[in-house]
Amino acid sequence: MRTPTRVSSLPPNPYEELASLAEPEAGPHPGRPAGAEADPEADPHIPGAGSTGHPFGFEFTYVTPDDDGSPPPGHRRAKRSRRRPRRSRRLPGVPRAAKLLIAAAACAAVLVLADRCAVLYAEKQAERKLQQQLHLAAAPQVDIHGFPFLTQVLAKELERVDVTVPHVAAGRVSLAKVRASGQYVRLTGDLPTDIKGAVIGKVDGNVLLSFADLNRELGASQVRFRSTGAHEIAAEGRVDVAGQQLRLRAQARLQRVGDRGLSTDIDGMSVDVPRVATYRPGKDKGLTLHRETAERISRDAARIKAMLSVPALAGRLGVSPAETELVLRDEDRLHRLTGAPRFVERLTQVNLVDAVVEHPWLLEKIGLDPRLITGVMQLRPPELTDRLSLSFQLPKEAVGLRLRDVSVERDGIRAEIGGVELPVGKTG
Description:
By secondary structure, the chain is an alpha+beta fold. 34% of the residues lie in helices and 30% in strands. It has helices spanning 14-20, 73-81, 94-134, 149-155, 211-217, 291-298, 301-308, 311-316, 321-329, 331-338, 343-349, 353-358, 361-365, 370-377, 381-388, and strands at residues 141-145, 157-170, 173-190, 194-210, 224-227, 232-241, 244-257, 261-273, 277-280, 286-289, 391-393, 402-408, 412-425. A hairpin with a 2-residue loop joins strand 6 and strand 7 (244-257).
């Protein structure tokens, strides 16, 4: 009886299967004669021999090295064949276009630079010629407008030229700034290398007579000017009377002298004696007390009686002759009169000129210095007008310029100027 074969119920060991796939140890293979070389392609026991398959689905490629150990030439060529071909970084036509653009930009930059250099040279030459012709202490500033400049030079006509001249002498004073804009400027000379002069077709501009400059230049007479209206100036100065410095004030109204000059018409003059009185010379002359002096007189009975003793002054204060006799004898009536609210105000409005002239003793009686008041009243308007007058003329070298309008601004007197066909330099 055959013994039944026991079938193992254990699962196969995976490590044993992997061990069976391991390469055989060196030595004669069973079934192959000793000394015979193993043929990988014919030996079925070598994995993958004679076939490209592998039990696990891998594919192996055997490369037989040469005798020197380097792979065959075909291998390198095959490897190189797998590299991606290099792309050319140059695009057709771009380098040439770029070079043309760069060359054009460089040429344009050179032309612009040459044109600007020519403008600067021409401006400097014009400044030098103007300074020489007008005998200026400071060089003017010349700005030539329009582009390109060289084509204007070749055409012998500039579009516009602006000129700014500082500190131009004009008689007793100097003009703070002269600005002019010339159009249709025709050049003369051997162009473009030698520009001798020009003829300005039309000129528009203005001149500024600064109050700061006037106050500084007329400082010897201690005169100060300031604006009080569109055509009026307040003038203030100093005058010496009896050893005292008195303030002189006036209104100066601007007026043109022809079409090249400017002067002031002085009126409304007054000489102020500080804390005492104000004297106004001229046709409507007058001497009036300051309020401080009027209050001091109203509190002193002797001084009030001295004034009321002059009938002309009593009448101007509104006191009748009969009432004057009563207040001069009755102190109570006098105090009631001088204590009235409007009495001091009336006293500041009374003109004392004729009363002082006819009764010189009155000044001392009411507490005023006779020598000082007499000296003030002897001032003559022409003398005071000379101290405050202001005038100037356009420089004679500025041929063809004319004054158009004059106005008073905050910083000074401004006059509009204009002209046509003004020559500069040599025009012949």
